[in-house]
Amino acid sequence: MRHVAVIGSGPAGYYTAEACQKIFGEEVRVDILDRLPVPYGLIRFGVAPDHQSIKAVSRRYEAVALSDNVRFVGNVCVGRDVTIGELQDLYDAVVLATGAPKDRPLEIPGGNLPGVVGSAEFVGWYNGHPEFAGLEPRLNGPGAVIVGNGNVALDVARILAKTQQEFAGSDIVAHALEQLNRSAIRHITILGRRGPHEIAMTPKELGELGHLERAAPRVDPVDLPEDGADALLEPGMRKSVGHLRDFAANPVAKPVIIEFDFFAMPVAIEGDGKVDRVIVERTVLDDQLRSHGTGERYSVDCSLVVSCIGYSTPPIEGVPYEHGRGRFASDEGRILPGLYCVGWARRGPTGTIGTNRPDGYMIAEKIAEDIGADSGKAGRPGLDALLAERGVEIVTFRDWQKIEQAEVLRAREGAPREKFIAIEEMIRAKG
Ligand code: NAP
């Protein structure tokens, strides 16, 4: 028997478990640990609440979780309840699938003023992450600035722009819906330090901005490269830039404006004890497509700044780490003998949910190359004994199903669920 512990129950964790199942069949026991009592990581707390079809992938993970040789072990925090070293003693392979839940800091003067939030915080707030539910973002002024030109910037802009009715069918949490409903934001500026050809936005997500009830995108035609230049882009990018061209050519008047400000780099945030404005510097690109400030500066008034400039994986003591890239140091997923990383914890925060599938399979194959048929390690019973000794209350997948059922029961009309926010509420709901 092989014993595998996967830390983190998001997409990378589940795909790794699925791959271990495929490769080892009945000869493996996989425990998927999560510090929260609820599974799915990024699917529950990262994917936008109005993108339910993407969240549906969790049904596939459910099939894995309900098989005999894989189990979910929720409410167990590695580092607090059990150490990596202890897990390595108990399991043949320990896989870090901890994602990249920390915001990359916006390192400019004023970056810590009240009203500046990172996308992990803001997304966690509207998705009901226990850590960020109390955020109360400053939605009280007409201006909001979003920094970054990736898909997270689009998610944040769309959530800030939507009406209450447009959230029908979503699982946005009640506190966020209430606060957004009272929001005074009417002008959302998305700052990109480079140009339309350098965006990291996918066509479907960008196109959605053209179909909002009370909000419309605005692009300055001057920022767009000449038409023919798009021919050199790969098809997805060409489509994305096509949307920008469409927004520039057909401006629509609606009460909320989502303005794309390209070649625009935030250099400072100012305000009287809180955010009042962002100081922006115009940029030009060099022949390596890197941005450089031109010295021309202007300010954008706002009460809220959401920095969507990427994430990092929190380091774990004793585990080799690449500080510059904010991820574990590994040789294609191998960190140390018996210790692996997968998904964003291995690659950094790039790619779609589906990218984690081949990643999970790759790690499972490496595990298969590295470990023997039976090391005699204690595995599951060993972990259970250790956690029982420490009085840690495990949440199983069956427990989670009860929590989920309770969330479905308390959903507002038309919504798939109303998530519990506090860990104690989740534990109570499992009975
Ligand atoms: P991302 O795609 O890496 O985009 C980050 C953006 O921040 C880039 O435009 C980058 O500009 C900019 N940036 C970085 N540092 C900056 C700085 N100091 N000042 C100004 N701008 C800065 O990251 P993301 O949007 O967080 O998304 C993470 C991953 O999740 C991506 O793979 C994304 O596609 C995926 N995702 C997918 C969906 C979906 O499919 N619906 C939704 C959300 C997220 P430069 O290019 O100039 O560095």
Structural description of this entry:
The chain has 15 helices and 19 strands. It is α/β, with parallel strands linked by helices. The chain folds into two domains: 218 residues, 3-Layer(aba) Sandwich (Rossmann fold); 203 residues, FAD/NAD(P)-binding domain, CATH 3.50.50.60. The protein binds NADP nicotinamide-adenine-dinucleotide phosphate (NAP).
User: Number of DSSP strands?
Assistant: 19
Distance between the termini: 33 Å
Strand content: 15-25%
Query: CATH class of the largest domain, anyone?
Result: Alpha Beta
Described by the principal axes of the CA atoms, the overall outline is globular
Helix content: 25-40%
Question: What is CATH's topology name of the largest domain?
Answer: Rossmann fold
Would you identify the regions where 5 or more consecutive residues have pLDDT less than 50?
A: none
In DSSP terms (H or I, runs of 4 or more residues), the helix count works out at 15
Q: How many domain modules? A: 2
CATH architecture assignment name of the largest domain? 3-Layer(aba) Sandwich
The molecules bound to the chains, other than polymers, are: NADP nicotinamide-adenine-dinucleotide phosphate
For the sheet with most strands, the description reads: 6 strands, mixed
- CATH superfamily of the largest domain, please? NAD(P)-binding Rossmann-like Domain
How confident overall, as mean pLDDT? Answer: 97
Cα gyration radius (Å): 23 Å
Structural class: alpha/beta
User: Strand order within the widest sheet?
Assistant: 3-2-1-4-19-18
